[in-house]
Structure formats: C-alpha cells, structure tokens
Design goal:
It is a single chain. With 176 residues, the chain is of the alpha+beta class. It has a domain at 65-164: Aspartate Aminotransferase, domain 1, CATH 3.90.1150.200. The protein has helices at 33-46, 65-75, 113-123, 144-148, 150-164, and strands at 8-10, 19-21, 81-86, 89-94, 97-103, 106-110, 126-127, 139-142. 22% of the residues are buried. The mean pLDDT is 81.
C-alpha cells in the first residue's frame, strides 16, 4: 500500500503507473533535555575516551630519628623562624613563607634560583617533588650527605633564609 507518510506519490499522468519516491527524512532539531541527551549519546558513541587511571598516592613514611635531629639542630636559632607542621612533618616558616621542611626521610629547603643551581651542581640536590611529576618550584631536596653534615645543612638553610626574606610577607590564615 502506498502511503504518503512513507514518501511522495508521483503521478506521471493518465494511464501511467504512479510511482512512490521515498525522500530522506528531514532532520529536525530537538529541543530541551532530549536534544542534549541525544548529542551526548552520539558523542559518547563516536568518541572513545581513554579512561584515566587514578594516581597512586605515595606511601608516607615517618622520618628517621637522625633526620629529625639533624633538622632540629640546623633550624635551632635561625633568626625569625616559626616552627609549624607541613604535610604532617616538622617545618620552619619565615614571615609566613615556608623555608624548609622534613618530608618522609628527606629535608627540603627553599632557595633562590642561583642557589638551587649551585645546590644541584655542588651537592647533588634535586628538585623537590612530593609526588612524582608534581614538583614544588623553588625547593630542593638535599642529599643524605648534606643532611649528615650539620655545618653544610645549616649553611644551606641560611642561604634559604636570605632568599625567603626577599619574599612578600604572608599573613597567617585563620582556621574556620
């Protein structure tokens, strides 16, 4: 049965056969919620998105007693420093800016760019990354040889003090 709903009825004249020509349906723009869900469904079907694997959090470990003692000795008597906890580890701040901290069994210190280069070149320090690929600029992780040498550790902390004093003061944040 010929139905105009399915196509267009074309008549060629008297005595000729009528022909049904089907025309492609015109796409109509959907409105509202259905249009958005239709777009999202098409997009989801057409593109295969790579699933992001969640980052594995590093296992946080406690510092050794030697690292803790070396940090305490080196920071003891630094002018104007305030002791706080950062990342759950002991740290020292100057004018509201973090100067140095223990992280796991490592000590990191904030240095100027020339001093960072010098620390990396002379001592084997490396840029500080609490998690791989997530570095904290201006901070270097001092090698164990420097941590074991009280005078060397104190000297790097004093260089850090000189740099952190040049930074703008930060007001203490009030806990809500």
């Amino acid at each position: 049965m010929i139905s105009p709903a399915n196509g267009v009825l074309v008549s060629r004249g008297v005595g000729c056969r009528d022909t049904l020509v089907t025309m492609p349906k015109k796409k109509t723009a959907k409105k509202g919620k259905d249009a958005k869900s239709a777009k999202n469904t098409k997009r989801a079907k057409n593109t295969k998105r790579a699933k992001k694997t969640p980052r594995k959090m590093p296992a946080f470990t406690k510092p050794t007693e030697e690292t803790r003692a070396a940090f305490e000795r080196a920071t003891d008597g630094l002018p104007g420093v305030e002791r706080r906890t950062m990342f759950g580890y002991p740290s020292v701040f100057l004018n509201g800016n973090m100067l140095a901290s223990i992280f796991q069994d490592r000590i990191m210190v904030r240095l100027s760019e020339p001093d960072r280069g010098d620390a990396i070149k002379r001592t084997g320090a490396k840029p500080f990354e609490p998690t791989p690929g997530r570095g904290m600029r201006e901070y270097v992780e001092l090698p164990s040889g420097v941590i074991a040498d009280a005078n060397a550790l104190r000297a790097w902390l004093e260089r850090g003090v000189v740099y952190v004093r040049t930074l703008p003061n930060k007001a203490a944040k009030q806990k809500s």
